[in-house]
Design brief:
Largest sheet: 7 strands, mixed
CATH topology of the largest domain: FAD/NAD(P)-binding domain
InterPro entries: Amino_oxidase (IPR002937), CrtISO-like (IPR045892), FAD/NAD-bd_sf (IPR036188)
CATH superfamily of the largest domain: FAD/NAD(P)-binding domain
Organism: Ruminiclostridium papyrosolvens DSM 2782
Bound molecules: flavin-adenine dinucleotide
Protein name: Amine oxidase
GO biological process, one term: carotenoid metabolic process
Distance between the termini: 18 Å
Helix content: 25-40%
GO molecular function: oxidoreductase activity
CATH architecture of the largest domain: 3-Layer(bba) Sandwich
Length: 471
């Protein structure tokens, strides 16, 4: 008899698990609390403007990339136009000095040398390292690249003589980051492995949902899982918040790790390591996203500007000294002709917003205050937009939580904790975790790979050969 897998969550990890479950002959059903697929990989519509809430760089677009095959198996790029920018962003200081982070490493090297020839030695060292970085697997075994994982950006920029380059590089990669992660990021762009899928994040997720449904999978939306049920330490199914019980041979949770382990399973299947991991709260950043719908064409501006602010500003308890403004005129599907969508993602503190949310008036007032501050700076930089703003939308860390239950609003999962991260739980059979909370860093490639991994484990448990296409 065909065995059944229940999957919690229709984010990218859940959809991936669903597709591979179907490919391997299981009956699968996804329960998703929301009404659309994608989870954090989403977009939303406001008065004819489509606001994107996720993808800045989608990794795995290069056929040579380690993630390409998996995206391809899910037909994630099928029928999609993939767009590759020439540069990652413009970084500008308050005096108008500008560094353009070109994707092409030769172009970036020439530009950096033009800005500061006196730094040519360290510039060449950096660009040579980027040229050497083909993929993360080989790079993490190459000592000449691995050595940069022990050097922080703070220490690295000290080797530059030009004060603007020092400042601009730190605006691109924060001082606590390793130089290895800077090299990795530049290499991804140089290798044409980072793209923008035209249509945006929700459309991208819908492409994988389509594949899942075509494979015969079922999704039940507006269905929040309240409890994962186990008998004699083996999962038997799930209970929804409306009380309905669904049985299965296996359950994969592709929902937030904290809620699966500590809420749906009530913390019954943990050990000291898991407890310490979650108590460490070593989670990635969270942000506030301000989005505008503007009734004018801003396509003459760079698509992404990182402005170094003259005076830093406190946003929800976090000091920000730069402001990233992204305009989506490069994707004509997001607004009507002659109109523009603009967003800004600013780091903030989850607990600050959690406290503020207890009083809805204060919460709304703070959102408005930040939006007004942003609009003031925005209109100075883009004067033709003055008086033409038709939509103002502010998403806070609470929005991320309300929308997907992502723990601490940390939309990229862990911040590289030292502890081991579980994908199964001690003493519980038939249960698997997938998604960004099962790896050291989050992101869409992590989600898709861990969804696939959960089905590989089920197949192994069942003594079956894993298939990555339909037989
Ligand atoms: C602003 C922003 C920018 C980002 N930029 C990038 C980027 O440029 N590149 C990149 O690769 N990644 C980026 N990410 C990160 C990326 O979106 C996430 O790492 C990835 O989407 C996580 O996927 P997931 O499937 O693991 O989890 P999620 O997307 O969190 O999916 C979990 C799903 O489970 C559902 N769920 C939760 N609890 C329950 C329950 N009890 N019952 C039923 N359903 C439940 C949720 O509704 C959700 O649909 C960004 C994220 C954000 C928010």
């Amino acid at each position: 008899m065909q065995k059944k897998i229940i999957i919690i969550g229709a984010g990218i990890a859940g959809l991936s698990a669903g597709c591979y479950g179907q490919m391997n002959g299981y009956e699968t059903q996804i329960f998703e609390m929301h009404s659309v697929p994608g989870g954090l990989c989403t977009s939303w519509d406001r008065k004819g403007y489509r606001i994107d809430g996720c993808i800045h760089w989608l990794m795995g677009a290069n056929p040579e990339s380690m993630f390409y095959e998996t995206w391809n198996e899910l037909e994630a790029f099928k029928g999609k136009e993939l767009l590759y920018h020439d540069y990652i962003m413009h970084i500008e200081n308050s005096e108008g000095k500008k560094l353009i982070m070109y994707c092409d490493i030769d172009k970036l090297e020439t530009h950096l040398m033009e800005l500061s020839f006196q730094d040519s030695e360290v510039i060449r060292e950096l660009t040579d390292a980027v040229r050497k970085f083909k993929d993360i697997h080989t790079a993490s075994k190459d000592e000449s690249l691995v050595k940069y994982s022990k050097v922080t950006m703070h220490d690295f920029v000290q080797r530059f003589k030009d004060p603007f380059l020092k400042e601009a590089l730190l605006a691109f990669a924060p001082k606590g980051n390793s130089v290895f992660s800077l090299i990795f990021q530049l290499a991804i762009y140089n290798n044409k492995d980072a793209c923008w899928p035209v249509g945006g994040s929700l459309e991208f997720a819908k492409g994988i949902e389509k594949r899942y449904l075509e494979l015969g999978g079922k999704i039940q939306y507006k269905s929040m899982v309240d409890e994962i049920i186990a008998a004699n330490d083996r999962v038997t199914g799930i209970k929804l918040t409306d009380g309905c019980v669904h049985t299965a041979d296996f359950v994969v949770s592709a929902a937030d790790g904290y809620s699966a382990i500590f809420e749906m399973l009530k913390g019954q299947y943990i050990n000291e390591e898991i407890k310490a991991l979650y108590e460490s709260k070593k989670v990635s950043n969270t942000s506030i996203q301000i989005s505008l719908g503007v009734n004018c064409d801003l396509s003459r501006y760079p698509y992404c500007i990182n402005m170094m602010l003259e005076n830093s500003v406190q946003i929800g308890g976090v000091e920000n000294s730069q402001l990233l403004i992204k305009n989506y005129c490069f994707d004509k599907t997001l607004s009507l002709p002659g109109k523009s969508v603009v967003t800004s993602l600013i780091f903030t503190d989850y607990e600050y917003w959690e406290e503020l949310y207890k009083n809805s008036e204060n919460y709304k007032a703070e959102k408005k205050k930040i939006a007004d501050w942003f609009i003031c700076l925005f209109e100075k930089k883009y004067p033709e937009a003055k008086g033409k703003i038709e939509v103002v939308d502010v998403a806070t860390p609470i929005t991320y939580y309300r929308y997907t239950h992502v723990w601490q609003g940390a939309y990229c999962g862990w911040k590289a904790p030292a502890q081991k991260i579980p994908n199964v739980l001690p003493g519980l059979l038939g249960f698997y975790l997938a998604g960004q909370w099962t790896q050291t860093t989050g992101g869409l490639p992590t989600a898709v790979i861990t969804g696939k991994g959960s089905i590989m484990r089920i197949c192994k448990q069942d003594g079956k050969n894993f298939l990555s296409k339909c037989s």
